[in-house]
Amino acid sequence: MKLIKHIFILLLAIAPIFALAQDEDAITFQAKVSKKKLGLNERLRVDFEMNKDGDNFKSPNFDGFTVVGGPNQSVSHSWFNGKRNFSKTYSYFLAPKQMGTFTINQATIEIDGVTYKTSPITIKVTKPIEVPEDPNDPDYILKESIHLVTEVSKTNPYLNEPITVVYKLYVAPKAGISNFREIESPKFNGFWSQNINIKGLKAQEGTYDGEEYRYVVLRKTVLFPQKTGKLQIEPLSLDLTIDVPTNKRDLFGRRITNQAHRTITANPRSINVKDLPLEGRPDNFTGAVGDFDFNVSVSKTDLNATEALDAKIEVSGNGNLKLFELPKFKAPSALEVYEPEHEENIRTNLSGMQGKISDNYTIVPQFKGKFPIPPVTFSYFDLKTETYKELSSEEIVINVLEGSAYADADNNLPTNTSGKQPVVLNENQFAFIKTKSNFSSIKEEDFFNTTAFWTGLLAPLLAIPLALVYRRKREERNADVVGNRLRKADRLAKKYLSEAKKALGNKEAFYIALEKALHNYLKGRLNIETTDLSKEKIKELLLSRNVEKNVILDFETLLKHCELARYTPMTQVAMEQDYNNAAAKQ
Fold first, then answer.
1. What DSSP designation does 61 have?
2. Tens digit of pLDDT for each residue in 30-59?
3. Burial (Cβ within 10 Å: 0-12, 13-18, ≥19) of residue 87
4. Which residue among 112, 323, 435, 570 is the one 20 to 30 A from 193 at the CA level?
5. What is the 3-state secondary structure of 127-144?
6. Cβ-contact 60, 104 below 8 angstroms
7. Neighbours of 586 (CB within 10 A)
8. What is the CATH code of the structural domain delimited by 290-416?
9. Fold match between 24-126 and 290-416?
10. CA 365 and chain centroid, separation
């Protein structure tokens, strides 16, 4: 009994050692945050850490936050008591959009064919924290010396009256910004909007709160409110790289500066949209607001039956030219009127829309006579006088000189306003009816002597050797480990290259997909693990395989762009060039 007791005690003593050894070999994938409670003006760091390398990492959506940095990737190797320790981390920097409680959802990754997930983390965002009054603190510099302003031309417009929104970034002379990028574009819900192109950002001198500032105009937009009541103009958000001075100086006595990333958001603005007055509103009013001229014209008034003439209804001037319908012709039913061709010649600037719109009709008279086209009326709301105005054209008489008789000028002709043309009877109204046919008899055939019968009988027998050959080829293919690895790498590279093409214009998503495509392609071609994919290792292996130097240089450039794109702005043209270079290498 004593021996059994000693053995039991020994097992209890060594059990934790076995458990610890098993834990050391276990795969871990977890999420870590810099803090679980932060102010609205602070930033959050999220790390997704694993102890073994994997593929196809997918981050959560980060609802309630704006990604202002990342994903940054870091890999570390260490040795302890003869055992190799590995760690790989994907890092993100987030800025909260609003106060409240939010959840960092699960991230996923594939390790040795198994999908691992992190646990959700709850984050609480409180009101902005107090910024210390340190002139060298980036938060203090952002609060006191940098301002993103939303300027609105009018806050109580009429429905469909144009207003302008201009976003300006003011920077005090003592502050410095080395770079900025737009991270959240404003959405103009309830408005018809048109952006005004800005050719190059130019710094200008101005004042803010009575002090001298430099400013740059970032965006100009013309808005036409489409509904009444209180409408919100969403703010613009920027990620700024601020130059923060330090107490250190270089060899020449110049002060050394550090860089810090901060998020700035423009002030939100509200617009109170007034409805157009009901008093004096014409029945034919279709929503035109502005200052317009109206004209109705025809290419000719004298012609023969079945000849065509062109008629045009045109509105020109300043106002919401794209946002209302032109009046229709009310032509006599004896005139065949075709659907109009709509034309627009409009330019948009800070004062609204200017130009003209027109509907061009083709009209074909069917009978001889004189056919009057009644006057066409057009109404609009004049912003200057705040009243409705109605314009009318002159009556137009179409004189058809030759053709079958139908009516003359003294007849009261019905007009056609529905757009449908009446059926006109003439001597050729009945088509010729054939009395003889080209029918031929069908002779029944014996199915058992047809080609279809013998094909159906022999096809299964011929398919047996083909199936055996296919099975043998498939087994050979499955046994080809190197070939399967290369084919898998090619498929993954093509998959991520396709995702990069779809993400053109979205810098973050584009370069993440492009980097994955390059890594999978090189991993398969060079027969190395993902952890070994450093630029130096890639260059060394490519040189050892006698790859041309210009090809190696292209790969280095693409990988460098994938890294730099996380910190610097990239243009659409640069992304297209990187995509074309990557596609040419695979």
1. -
2. 899 988 898 887 888 899 998 888 888 898
3. middle
4. 570
5. CCCCCCCCCCCHHHHHHH
6. yes
7. 14
8. 2.60.40
9. no
10. 50
